[in-house]
Design brief:
The structure is a single chain. The chain is an alpha+beta fold. The chain has 5 helices and 8 strands, in the order αβββββββαβααα. Strands 1, 2, 3, 4, 5, 6, 7 and 8 form an 8-stranded antiparallel sheet that branches. Helix 1 packs antiparallel against helix 4 and helix 3 (about 165-180) crosses helix 4 (about 185-210).
Length: about 240
């Protein structure tokens, strides 16, 4: 990465941090900790931090009392063309107040196909799931449990690399299912940020499958002209739109 690319990535990551701060404060309140972009070398970590640069959880209240907290962090990098900022890894963990183990983990790993790059893990226990995981050992020799397996071992797919949920989806989930406290105008804030996220992902998906996008646009009456000099295409196995 050149010095110019590093500087541009810093600017993009800082803007992303400001967007996340606006989102969480617009939903949870102005006391929500600010996100910061911290240069980690080839990547930039975007997360709420204390003054000593230690990761800080976001408090979430229900009925006026803190009942949950969110651990949120993103690792940002350039995409393969060094043109657009990409998420190399994202973690949104939901904790019950005072508990060291999360309730839910919404995660994304950019290079992962197995397990799915975008997945959810639920920290709970069901005897039936533990039994199924024990049965699965017979067909999955790389995964052996020297303890009772847990439901949290499962990586539940959530739409693949391009259609994965965002922090906005997690906040909506907490509001819908647990009635978390929110400030006036929270829904408009989430709607605006979610629209921006979905459009960004749509544009990324179009770059993955431009011929399909052109076909749909022509069907809608748009005139789409083939480029005189077609750009380089990724190998089919590298197109993240089709990754699990």
């Amino acid at each position: 990465m050149t010095a110019e690319e590093a500087k541009a990535l810093d600017v993009s990551a800082t803007d992303f941090a400001d967007q996340l701060t606006a989102l969480t404060r617009g939903v949870l309140g102005e006391d929500t900790p600010r996100f910061h972009a911290i240069n980690m070398g080839s990547k930039i970590r975007v997360s709420p931090i204390r003054e000593d640069e230690v990761l800080q959880r976001i408090p979430v209240s229900i009925g006026g009392e803190q009942r949950l907290s969110l651990m949120v962090r993103f690792y940002c990098c350039w995409d393969g063309s060094s043109t657009f900022m990409a998420t190399d890894q994202a973690d949104v963990h939901v904790f019950y107040a005072g508990s060291p183990d999360p309730l839910f983990r919404f995660e994304y790993v950019r290079r992962s196909k197995e397990p799915p790059g975008a997945h959810v893990q639920v920290h709970a226990h069901r005897d039936e799931v533990a039994y199924l995981l024990r049965l699965a050992e017979k067909g999955r020799p790389k995964q052996k449990f020297n303890r009772l397996p847990r439901l949290a071992e499962l990586h539940l797919p959530v739409g693949g690399h391009r259609m994965r949920p965002a922090l906005e989806d997690v906040l909506l989930f907490l509001k819908r299912e647990f009635a978390i406290d929110t400030v006036d105008g929270w829904k408009a804030v989430i709607d605006e940020h979610l629209r921006s996220w979905r459009l960004t992902q749509l544009k990324t998906a179009v770059r993955d499958a431009p011929d399909s996008a052109a076909q749909v646009l022509r069907g809608l009456g748009y005139t789409v002209v083939e480029p005189l000099v077609p750009g380089a295409r990724q190998a089919s196995g590298e197109v993240k739109l089709f990754w699990p």
